[in-house]
Amino acid sequence: MLISILVLKVGIVEMGALLMPAVVLTPDGTLAHAFPPPDGKFHYDSDEPWGDLHDHESLVKAIKPVDVVISAVGRTEVEDQFKLIAAIKEVGNIKRFFPTEYGSNVDAGHPIEPAKSGYARKAKIRRAIEAEGIPHTYVSCNCSFGFFLPTMAQPGATAPPRENILFYGDGQPKAIFNKEEDIATYTIKAVDDPRTLNKTLYLRPPKNIYSFKELVALWEKKIGKTLEKIYVTEDQILQMIQDASNEDKIMLVVNFSIFMKGEQTNFEIDPSSGVEASELYPDVDYATVEEYLDQFV
Ligand SMILES: *[C@@H]1O[C@H](CO)[C@@H](O)[C@H](O)[C@H]1NC(C)=O
Ligand SMILES: *[C@@H]1O[C@H](CO)[C@@H](O)[C@H](O)[C@H]1NC(C)=O
Ligand SMILES: *[C@@H]1O[C@H](CO)[C@@H](O)[C@H](O)[C@H]1NC(C)=O
Question: Which DSSP string corresponds to 108-146?
């Protein structure tokens, strides 16, 4: 089986680059011919010229010999995946397509703007895949360790808080954390698994589900210190969102939706459309929040 991978950033690491070691590790001889692209370009074999998402011919050529296409394009390229869908449709032999997701479930979450449009763009891609009859898997996996844990959803932070902490509401809704490498491992395990065909693969490793309050308590225990809590209400957050710059706005909405609205966990997985990764692959020894935080102490 051949796997072609386009690239994305999940948090601070290149998801595409992480997927490749995971591919090479698969036991059934699965081969990946993909390299971390410098600028949204890709190639699938060292002998091949660089392909281009915006060039239909090169896309078709790249996709033809592969069985599985994993797209890991970034947030601004989500809609470019219509081009990928057209190429997949033309080639006709793709056994599984993973569109770029790696976030919260865009069909279940209902954030306010500007995140709302971002979710809608990904949902449109899902609907197009289904309409075109393309076998698929959607990977739903925020929050990634590297992006969320070092800063604990603190606006503008570059390190975990030591003195005070912006505390989201009552801190009760649960969020889900996954290490980037584990996201890659689970994704690659799913590529040819019939149990994940046409399903959303949710990554909900039981040891990595924390409410904001629990996360803060864990951090305080590790540093042996109680942080001063700056409690913000929903109204205050909504005001902060209004006042924020565009880039901050989107992240503030994401942080608000996850930690105050509990959008990652406020629904049950419907077995007719979703499966959970740590249940399907109990052999994966996933990294835990508990251990990961130690490096920042
Ligand atoms: C998922 O996390 C990334 C950072 O790791 C963030 O940029 C993105 O907006 C999040 N997506 C959703 C849908 O929560
Ligand atoms: C998987 O989904 C595609 C797109 O919706 C559909 O055409 C195909 O028949 C489905 N495959 C199975 C085995 O259900
Ligand atoms: C949202 O959370 C992320 C991850 O912890 C953090 O880096 C960012 O600064 C937060 N952004 C805002 C605007 O709250």
Answer: T--PPTTHHHHHHHHHHHHHHHHHTT--BEEEE-PPBHH
Smallest CA-to-CA distance from 165 within 119, 127, 217, 116 is with: 217
- Is the Cα dihedral 104, 107, 110, 113 positive or negative? positive
Which region holds residue 29: left if phi is over 0, alpha if psi is between -120 and 50, else beta?
left
Ligand 3: residue of 112, 149, 255 to mutate (most ligand atoms within 8 A of CB) is 255
Please work out whether the CB of residue 11 comes within 6 Å of at least one atom of ligand 1.
yes
Superfamily of domain 2-296: UDP-galactose 4-epimerase, domain 1 (3.90.25.10)
pLDDT tens-digit readout, 49-96: 556 677 888 778 777 877 888 887 777 778 888 988 999 999 998 899
